[in-house]
Amino acid sequence: MNDPDDAGAAREALPAMALRHALASLRDILAITDERLRLVYVSPSVEGVLGYAHDEMLGRTLFDVVHHEDHAMLRSLIGERFASRAGNTIRHRTIHADGSLRTFETMVHVVERDGRLENAAFIARDVTSRVLEEERLAHELAFRQALVELTNELLAASLDAGFYRHALERTVALVPDAQAGSLMLRREDGLFAFEAAVGFDLAALAELRLSDYELFRSQPSQVERLDVASFNDRIAADKLAHFEAAGRLDEIRVALSVPILVGDVVHGYLNLDNFERADAFDDHDRAIAEAIAAQVSVALRRRLLERALEAERARFEYLAVRDPLTGLPNRRLFHDRLEQELARVRRRGHRFALLFLDLDGFKQVNDLHGHDAGDALLRGVATALGAAVRVEDTVARLGGDEFGVLLADVSLAADAAAVARKLVAAAAGPMSAFATPEPLGVSAGVAICPDHGVDADGLLRAADRAMYVVKAAGGRGVAIADETGGADPAAPGAGH
Q1: CA max distance for the chain
Q2: Checking DSSP bridges between strand 441-449 and strand 477-480, what pairing results, if any?
């Protein structure tokens, strides 16, 4: 039969045993201090949480384990006897047995007797992981916000040197390990040139032109950490000396290089440099640099698209005023320039000549040799006529085998007729390549403003009629319009 006294003792021991097991399994640390804040009790969980043996903690003060930068806060709370924090939590950093720092949130309870602190109980929880995650999320949010701002800024910015410098400056500011940087773009000749730099002499760097071989980047292109000493074997000595001085190559411990891609083509590199640590630039740094390089890539695509659109617009504008076969001004542009010359006549009493030219026997070339041969002849004649006049003069194809010529600052009919005969002779060269039953040639009519007309229609009619006088006489010659708009058969150069 069991002894009643033994049973009672067992019942009394059970709560104490349960309490010891509970305290040993705590994830938190329970600590109790005396009035001098010396530890008189620490739960066994201290060893698993902070790495200290239970016994070595007893007798120590809170200042022995709390980080020195948080001592001032602790002293302030002690002075207040934790009155403002009783039942609440304080956040502080604590030194782990391995020397690392952990962040704790600690709940404080105090026991006072006769207005004096007698004991304080602390329940401390390690929240290091949570704090680090909060910091990571805060940093991520700040980065995302900065990236959105940068994206908006880049989209609104003009694509000039200031754009690239701004993008680089923001990158260096956002990437923790970046202490300097540069941005280089591929030129039309295929070489790379520096467009922006932070921490370097851009004017000196801008003088350099570097090839794919000299840059020694991975293929296919990827983000990579570079030992800049590897450039030594690939760059000529004189260029390397310049690069070392302008780019501080001997000071850089490691560089992070991010390709700027448009499609699969590398159009540039965003480079970030660290002068202190060879292990700089972790995955987080790389992610930021890649995100900003992607924004620069978008801007580059925009610039390339704008250039393509500008080129296409220029092409359409060119085609709108140019003959597609010969490249000469067409009838529309010829009329515009004719009106400009007439405006000069009205302002300053200016004089000029208008020539109307038509090929003789052109139909024979098409019939005997085909339309491709006819087109080739028209192109040859256009080239010959253009080469035979001055830069300030205009040769245009008006349609079919008809050409118009404006001779600026030619005031005498005889001078204009002399130029017309020169043009007739010049056209004979490309015509000689085609055998035809009837000889090929050019008939030309000459009109002088204001002698033979004071408006576009009048001058064109006068020159056209003079040209037909030559045609009627057998072609291959020059005639000058008369005052009635016809042609003067006695004019110099009329007929053959």
Answers
A1: 160
A2: parallel
Picking from 87, 92, 82, 94, the residue whose alpha carbon sits closest to that of residue 46 is 94
Distance between CA atoms of residues 414 and 278, nearest Å: 84
Contact 447, 413 (CB under 8 A): no
State the amino acid at position 340 in one-letter form: Q
Q: Residue 5: pLDDT band by 50, 70, 90 thresholds?
A: low
Judge whether 354 and 406 are in contact, CB under 8 Å: yes
- pLDDT tens, position by position, 291-344: 888 888 887 787 778 778 888 888 888 888 999 999 999 999 999 999 999 999
Bridge partners for 260 per DSSP:
268
pLDDT digit string, tens, across residues 32-52: 988 888 899 998 888 889 999
Q: In whole angstroms, what is the distance from residue 286 CA to residue 176 CA?
A: 10
Both structure tokens of 484: 């009635």
Cβ atoms within 10 A of the Cβ of 249, count? 17
Q: Looking at this protein, which amino acid is placed at residue 175?
A: V
In whole angstroms, what is the distance from residue 398 CA to residue 395 CA?
Answer: 9
Tokens encoding 360: 């003789």
Count CA atoms closer than 13 A to 289's CA, side-chain side: 30
Q: What are phi and psi of 401, to 5 degrees?
A: -110, 30
Nearest to 259 by CA among 212, 214, 197: 212
| Amino acid letter, residue 109 | H
Burial (0-12, 13-18, 19+ Cβ within 10 Å), 202: middle
